Inverse folding.
């Protein structure tokens, strides 16, 4: 078999392509590693913030006649901590006292757990309407929340509040 210049050139081109592919794969791997490191740093920061938030067991609740301060009972606080949930802002929406429960972005909480938390929260605080605050939500989860008449909101898109006592 005779090796011609054409074959040599073709082999050189293939070698260059393989080298370029190798370089690209290394860059992709490095990019993923950098994202992971940044993600860990952000996660550490968020964990510190969550710990600071959870140390406070008091929530200010706006009432029609006066501002009241309630203490989240240890059982409910333990439930929220178990599911890695935080209590967010609170206030009034259309004459309904609401308290937002912040849902984690990357950890999905099962719909059964949300139903259970909603039930327990309403048992202990019948004057308040818990609103589960999502960054994103899938269609089946959304549909089930509406069927169960559980108040929720999706950041920048939708808010459904069914009202306390319903």
């Amino acid at each position: 078999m005779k090796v011609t210049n054409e074959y040599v050139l073709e082999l050189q081109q293939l070698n260059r392509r393989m080298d370029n592919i190798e370089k690209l794969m290394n860059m992709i791997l490095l990019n993923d590693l950098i994202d992971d490191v940044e993600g860990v740093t952000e996660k550490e920061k968020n964990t510190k913030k969550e710990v600071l938030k959870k140390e406070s067991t008091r929530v200010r609740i706006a009432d029609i006649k006066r501002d009241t301060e309630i203490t989240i009972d240890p059982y409910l606080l333990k439930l929220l901590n178990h599911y890695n949930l935080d209590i967010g802002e609170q206030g009034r929406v259309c004459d309904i006292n609401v308290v937002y429960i912040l849902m984690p972005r990357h950890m999905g909480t099962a719909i059964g757990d949300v139903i259970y938390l909603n039930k327990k929260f309403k048992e202990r605080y019948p004057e308040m309407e818990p609103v589960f605050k999502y960054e994103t939500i899938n269609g089946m989860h959304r549909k089930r929340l509406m069927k169960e008449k559980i108040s929720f909101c999706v950041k920048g898109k939708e808010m459904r509040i069914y009202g306390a006592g319903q």
User: Anything to note?
Assistant: Strands lie at 58-62, 67-71, 86-93, 96-102, 129-134, 152-154, 158-160. The longest strand covers residues 86-93. The radius of gyration is 26 Å.
